[in-house]
Specification:
Layout lengths: L2 H7 L10 H29 L11 H25 L2 H31 L8 H33 L6 H30 L1
Helix pairs in contact: 2-5, 2-6, 3-4, 3-6, 4-5, 5-6
Length: 195
């Protein structure tokens, strides 16, 4: 297809090369991984030192894990709808993903309350403190992702549906970050379960 027919069809084709904004996002995500790597390393070292309270992780954290993974799947469906001309799917899946992300944060908070109620306060034994800190810092990163999904949702409903390369790349940033925080939580939660 030549350039004139591309313009006539109204489809903005992807450009080749590295997306500098996406590359910067990946660098930022790498630094987040390093931060959580240092936290989990500190957890292992402190656990080996003894005086460690063993406790059963409240079931609500299993539910929140399922919710955030479902949110990631729904956001990916929205992205697929955006790229394939399915504007209805694109528009309906975005707010559903946002709602699921909000539910994740609410479930995390309820999980912290459940921890407190079983005798694991934030300022008590280091085992509980690590759980609160690791899950709390992750929740802060999720809030950043929710802000990005909120902006994407606002754009989906306030702008005319037009899958331009610029909009695709912006959506791609949101998608990559959201998948990142989702799978980061999966790793952290499994780590906290088996330690």
């Amino acid at each position: 297809m030549n350039t004139n027919s591309q313009l006539a069809s109204g489809i903005d084709r992807p450009k080749r090369g590295i997306n500098s904004t996406l590359f910067a996002l990946w660098i930022a995500m790498g630094s987040i991984v390093m931060m959580f790597g240092s936290l989990t390393s500190a957890y292992i070292v402190r656990h080996a030192a003894g005086n460690w309270l063993e406790f059963r992780v409240p079931d609500i954290f299993f539910y929140s894990t399922g919710v955030i993974l479902l949110s990631s799947l729904v956001l990916h469906l929205s992205y697929w709808g955006f790229n394939t001309g399915k504007a209805g799917l694109y528009r309906i899946a975005l707010p559903i993903s946002l709602l699921l992300g909000i539910i994740f944060i609410i479930l995390q908070y309820q999980g912290w309350l459940a921890l407190y109620n079983i005798g694991v306060p934030l300022d008590g034994n280091p085992s509980g403190s690590f759980f609160y800190v690791i899950s709390g810092i992750h929740a802060a990163h999720v809030l950043g992702g929710l802000f990005a999904i909120s902006v994407a949702t606002l754009n989906a409903f306030s702008l005319t549906y037009k899958p331009t390369e610029k909009r695709r790349r912006r959506f791609q940033l949101v998608l990559h970050y959201w998948h990142f925080v989702d799978f980061l939580w999966l790793y952290l939660f499994l780590f906290l379960l088996i330690q």
